């Protein structure tokens, strides 16, 4: 029975191969024809795709060959000693010619993050200083000056978010009021508000921003009316009364007093009025009178005598951006003899920084110690992670190739340490500071994360200056960690603890001004805010480079201001 059944079944199957079977059944013949046509189309389409792919590969190989020939020609012309520099130039050129599809995709992800952050601010905290995303309300952390809005202007512009930029511009023109009975930080107001307005002006050419920058700068100027010209760090915006915080014992803070130079020099250049530049350059002249050979200053300075107090030396909070601005004023003046003393002071400070470098065991992470008197503390703030970018940016200004390479290598080592600040925690987000212990490498100290930008900033500079895509990959990993841990329905928040991931309730204005801007530029061609035309203030606001001459001020540049073409479609202090 079983055998007979299988035999019948087998013979019945063979009838489907007999043409007469289908001639007697036209519907099945039609179905068979449709199946045949469909299979033929799929095979043909696949072969076409393969041929097209082969053509694309051939074209890409031609471009790679052309770039390799270009690189060989450059190396032959320049000689062996400049091979590394030529390689960087060739790498950047190829990136500009071929905008990597992965970079484009990541750039769009960052832009979407900016739209989410901005949309949440616009919905829940419009016109206020900062958004508290969890409670969905605004808070005036800086006297009600619209800090997030002003901080975001240039980010919106660079990303091509024109509708959002124009709405913010109307608020600045019609609603921004500086007549506040508020004790403002001169430092924070300068880097965020003056810097943000000047950058928006330099990018767009819209004088609304310049006029507002003049207005707030004039309210800050009385802070420099001290016996030495070293400013008080707090001023009442309405009454003009200036003083220092009580917790400093009446002293001025180094970073707070030495981080207004860029903004006020630029303001004098744009207006032709020398008073802003004179105020801030006098501070540097005073400090330079007794500037130490190692270029390291304590964080407290007496505004009456100009003497440095007995206090810590650090490249973290309250010290950091003073050293940054020594380099950046030199760059903003186009590296002429008129600003050479800034570069000289900065190079002294880099000798001092080198004396603070230690390496952990067993992994040999390079880090910058803090110094108090004659002793060093094995502690490094995340704020100090601006230093790798600064060092890399300054390394190309050394006259000796050995110095240039030495400091670039140090920058790369420090960037690796800062990246591991992120990688060493369960959330992959960095804590506020780290301690180093013999045999145990690093451990997080203060464990909050408030969306700080410094590590991403350094990755951006190193990517731009070396063309090494590793820095882009590190940056992308950090961006994904922010997306996973800090993004909520109503904005972005920091973490109270990078180990547990517990969230806080604040979207810092510098997240939009700095962190997201540096992420965006990390995946943009180097023609977007090129570093030979722009310099970033310490709040990531790009300002145009203008050649400085021995006579000091340049002419009023208003008439020559042209809008920047967009890509197509530290702090004090800032304890959070």
UniProtKB/TrEMBL annotation:
<keyword id="KW-0460">Magnesium</keyword>
<keyword id="KW-0325">Glycoprotein</keyword>
<keyword id="KW-0106">Calcium</keyword>
<keyword id="KW-0472">Membrane</keyword>
<keyword id="KW-0735">Signal-anchor</keyword>
<keyword id="KW-0464">Manganese</keyword>
<feature type="transmembrane region" description="Helical">
    <location>
        <begin position="29"/>
        <end position="44"/>
    </location>
</feature>
<dbReference type="InterPro" id="IPR050749">
    <property type="entry name" value="Glycosyl_Hydrolase_47"/>
</dbReference>
<feature type="active site" description="Proton donor">
    <location>
        <position position="188"/>
    </location>
</feature>
<dbReference type="GO" id="GO:0004571">
    <property type="term" value="F:mannosyl-oligosaccharide 1,2-alpha-mannosidase activity"/>
</dbReference>
<dbReference type="GO" id="GO:0006491">
    <property type="term" value="P:N-glycan processing"/>
</dbReference>
<keyword id="KW-0326">Glycosidase</keyword>
<feature type="active site" description="Proton donor">
    <location>
        <position position="432"/>
    </location>
</feature>
<feature type="binding site">
    <location>
        <position position="538"/>
    </location>
    <ligand>
        <name>Ca(2+)</name>
    </ligand>
</feature>
<keyword id="KW-1133">Transmembrane helix</keyword>
<comment type="pathway">
    <text>Protein modification; protein glycosylation.</text>
</comment>
<feature type="disulfide bond">
    <location>
        <begin position="385"/>
        <end position="418"/>
    </location>
</feature>
<dbReference type="GO" id="GO:0005975">
    <property type="term" value="P:carbohydrate metabolic process"/>
</dbReference>
<feature type="active site">
    <location>
        <position position="454"/>
    </location>
</feature>
<dbReference type="GO" id="GO:0005509">
    <property type="term" value="F:calcium ion binding"/>
</dbReference>
<dbReference type="GO" id="GO:0005783">
    <property type="term" value="C:endoplasmic reticulum"/>
</dbReference>
<keyword id="KW-0812">Transmembrane</keyword>
<keyword id="KW-0378">Hydrolase</keyword>
<dbReference type="Pfam" id="PF01532">
    <property type="entry name" value="Glyco_hydro_47"/>
</dbReference>
<keyword id="KW-0175">Coiled coil</keyword>
<keyword id="KW-0479">Metal-binding</keyword>
<feature type="coiled-coil region">
    <location>
        <begin position="50"/>
        <end position="77"/>
    </location>
</feature>
<comment type="similarity">
    <text>Belongs to the glycosyl hydrolase 47 family.</text>
</comment>
<keyword id="KW-1015">Disulfide bond</keyword>
<keyword id="KW-0333">Golgi apparatus</keyword>
<feature type="active site">
    <location>
        <position position="320"/>
    </location>
</feature>
<dbReference type="GO" id="GO:0000139">
    <property type="term" value="C:Golgi membrane"/>
</dbReference>
<dbReference type="InterPro" id="IPR001382">
    <property type="entry name" value="Glyco_hydro_47"/>
</dbReference>
<dbReference type="InterPro" id="IPR012341">
    <property type="entry name" value="6hp_glycosidase-like_sf"/>
</dbReference>
<comment type="function">
    <text>Class I alpha-mannosidase essential for early N-glycan processing. Progressively trims alpha-1,2-linked mannose residues. Produces Man(5)GlcNAc(2) from Man(8)GlcNAc(2), but only Man(6)GlcNAc(2) from Man(9)GlcNAc(2). Has difficulty acting on the terminal mannose of the b-branch. Involved in root development and cell wall biosynthesis.</text>
</comment>
<dbReference type="InterPro" id="IPR036026">
    <property type="entry name" value="Seven-hairpin_glycosidases"/>
</dbReference>
<protein>
    <recommendedName>
        <fullName>alpha-1,2-Mannosidase</fullName>
        <ecNumber>3.2.1.-</ecNumber>
    </recommendedName>
</protein>
């Amino acid at each position: 029975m079983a055998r007979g059944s299988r035999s019948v079944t087998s013979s019945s199957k063979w009838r489907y191969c007999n043409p007469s079977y289908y001639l007697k059944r036209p519907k099945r013949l039609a179905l068979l024809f449709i199946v045949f046509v469909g299979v033929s189309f799929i095979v043909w389409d696949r072969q076409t795709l393969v041929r097209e792919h082969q053509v694309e590969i051939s074209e890409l190989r031609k471009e790679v060959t052309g770039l390799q020939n270009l690189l060989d020609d450059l190396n032959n012309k320049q000689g062996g000693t400049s091979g590394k520099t030529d390689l960087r130039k060739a790498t950047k050129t190829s990136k500009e010619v071929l905008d990597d599809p992965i970079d484009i995709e990541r750039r769009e992800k960052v832009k979407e993050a900016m739209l989410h952050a901005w949309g949440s601010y616009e919905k829940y905290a419009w016109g206020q200083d900062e958004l508290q995303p969890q409670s969905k309300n605004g808070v005036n952390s800086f006297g009600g000056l619209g800090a997030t809005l002003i901080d975001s202007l240039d980010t919106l512009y660079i990303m091509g978010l024109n509708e959002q930029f124009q709405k913010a511009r109307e608020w600045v023109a019609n609603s921004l009021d500086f007549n506040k009975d508020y004790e403002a930080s001169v430092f924070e107001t300068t880097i965020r508000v003056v810097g943000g307005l000047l950058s928006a002006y330099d990018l767009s050419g819209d004088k609304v921003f310049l006029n507002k920058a003049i207005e707030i700068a004039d309210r800050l100027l009385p802070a420099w009316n001290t016996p030495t010209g070293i400013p008080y760090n707090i001023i009442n915006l309405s009454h003009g009364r200036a003083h220092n915080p009580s917790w400093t014992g009446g002293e001025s803070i180094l970073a707070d007093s030495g981080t207004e130079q860029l903004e006020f020099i630029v303001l004098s250049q744009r207006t032709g009025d020398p008073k802003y530049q004179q105020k801030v350059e006098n501070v540097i002249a005073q400090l330079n009178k007794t500037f130490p050979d190692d270029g390291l200053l304590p964080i407290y300075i007496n505004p009456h005598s100009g003497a440095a107090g007995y206090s810590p030396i650090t490249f973290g909070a309250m010290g950091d951006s003073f050293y940054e601005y020594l380099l950046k004023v030199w760059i903003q003046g186009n590296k002429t003899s008129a600003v050479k003393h800034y570069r000289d002071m900065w190079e002294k400070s880099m000798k001092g920084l080198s004396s603070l470098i230690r390496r952990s065991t067993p992994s040999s992470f390079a880090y910058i110690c803090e110094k108090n008197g004659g002793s060093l503390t094995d502690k490094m703030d995340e704020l100090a992670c601006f230093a790798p970018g600064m060092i890399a940016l300054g390394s190309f200004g050394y006259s000796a190739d050995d110095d240039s390479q030495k400091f670039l290598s140090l920058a790369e080592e420090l960037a690796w340490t800062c990246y591991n600040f992120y990688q060493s925690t369960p959330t992959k987000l960095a804590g506020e500071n780290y301690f180093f212990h013999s045999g145990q490498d690093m451990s997080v100290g203060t464990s909050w994360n408030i969306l700080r930008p410094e590590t991403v900033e350094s990755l951006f500079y190193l990517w731009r200056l070396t063309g090494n895509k590793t820095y882009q990959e590190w940056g992308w990993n950090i961006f994904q960690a922010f997306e996973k841990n800090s993004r909520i329905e109503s904005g972005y928040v920091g973490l109270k603890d990078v180990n547990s991931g517990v969230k806080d309730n604040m979207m810092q204005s510098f997240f939009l001004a700095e962190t997201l801007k540096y992420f965006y530029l990390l995946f943009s061609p180097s023609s977007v805010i090129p570093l030979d035309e722009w310099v970033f203030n310490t709040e990531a606001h790009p300002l145009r480079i203008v050649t400085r001459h021995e006579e000091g001020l340049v002419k009023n540049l208003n008439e020559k201001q042209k809008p920047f073409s967009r890509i197509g479609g530290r702090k004090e202090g800032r304890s959070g």
